[in-house]
Each structure stands twice: as C-alpha cells, then as structure tokens.
Design brief:
This is J domain-containing protein. Its main location: endoplasmic reticulum. Keywords: Endoplasmic reticulum, Membrane, Signal, Transmembrane, Transmembrane helix. By secondary structure, the chain is mainly alpha-helical. Helix content is about 65%, strand content about 0%. It contains eight helices and two strands, in the order H-H-H-H-H-E-E-H-H-H. It has a two-stranded antiparallel ribbon with strand order 1-2. Strand 1 and strand 2 form a beta hairpin. Helix 7 (about 135-150) packs antiparallel against helix 8. It starts with a helix and ends with a helix. Residues about 105-110 have low confidence and may be disordered.
Length: about 180
C-alpha cells in the first residue's frame, strides 16, 4: 500500500515536470524522482508501522508539558553598576519621574511634540559647543578617535585599554546621535 502511494506521487511529479518543462527534462529527473520515491516509501512505512508509538510519544509530551507555562524570550534588564548614574538621570528626566527624591522632567513634560532627547552630554563628550556645525563636529570626532583609538594602546595595561575602548564607544555614540541632526 505504501509503495503504491509513493509510486503514484512520483508518477504525478513526473507528469507535472514533463508537462511543465518537457519530457526530456522529466526523464533527466528520474534519478531524483527515484530518491524521492525511496524517501517517501521509507518514511511512509515507518509512520504506518510505528503510528501508535508516535501518537503515544506526542500524548505523553502533551501531558508532561500542559501545566508548564509557554516559554518566552528572556528579558534583559538594564543593570545599574554605579558608573552609569548619568544615564539613569537622563532616563528619569525624560520620563518625568522621580530620581533621588527629586522631581525630574522640566521641559520634557511640557513638550507638545512628545519625547525630546537631551543631547548636551554628546556635545560635552565631543568637546564642541551646541552651535557647532557639521564640519566642527566631524573634526572633533576625528581628533578624539585618533586620540583614543585602541591601536595606539596595544602595549598598555588592560585597565587603560578598557578605558580607551569605552571612551571610543562614547565618542562613536555621540557622533552618531549628533550627525543624525544634519541628515
């Protein structure tokens, strides 16, 4: 029975290939069709003979997992390590909440256009004033990258390398945020 079903499937595939692409190509596909026939025949025989065992395994898994909640993706929370207090202050200032017992918010809550990011720290990182042009920002960025590039500190100790890597990350972030204003 399984072999007749798989043979019927292969004949239908042969006719579809023959009608669509021509019977010369269908004859050329006979080795591939034979492999498909063997796979369908084997898996069909396997499923037919072990159907009850497969059904029993599925049922046992269902019973074992029905009381467990579905797994979801992990949520990674922002960790406070003492060095990122400025980030937390900015977050709470923008959110308009309390931080350190003081009300934050100010002009962010009164902004009719929604969220406005405070970019003053990025200007501080690059060492330019808030009225700097695109070229001034680019020049300051390039100078700082040259100054803090990790390749200059290959022979330095690990703490110094880490400091300059973190500084370079800050510089890149600042340049990315400020260069968006000019595009």
């Amino acid at each position: 029975m399984i072999y007749s079903v798989s043979m019927t499937l292969i004949l239908v595939l042969f006719l579809v290939i023959g009608i669509t692409f021509g019977f010369n190509r269908a004859v050329g596909m006979l080795p591939v069709l034979f492999i498909i026939f063997l796979l369908v025949a084997f898996f069909g025989w396997f499923i037919f003979n072990f159907f009850w065992l497969i059904l029993l395994i599925i049922f046992i898994n269902y019973l074992r997992n029905r009381n467990q909640p579905k797994r979801t993706r992990r949520t990674y929370y922002y960790r406070y390590n003492g060095t990122n207090t400025k980030d937390f202050e900015d977050f709470f200032r923008q959110a308009g909440g309390n931080y350190g017992g003081q009300q934050q918010g100010g002009y962010y809550n009164n902004n009719p256009f929604g969220y406005a990011e405070d970019k003053s720290k990025y200007y501080e990182i690059l060492g330019v004033n808030k009225n700097a042009s695109k070229d001034d920002i680019k020049k300051a960025y390039r100078d700082l990258v040259k100054q803090h590039h990790p390749d200059k500190f290959t022979n330095a100790n690990d703490s110094e390398k880490e400091y300059h890597e973190n500084k370079l990350k800050e510089i890149n972030e600042a340049y990315e945020k400020l260069s968006k204003d000019f595009t």
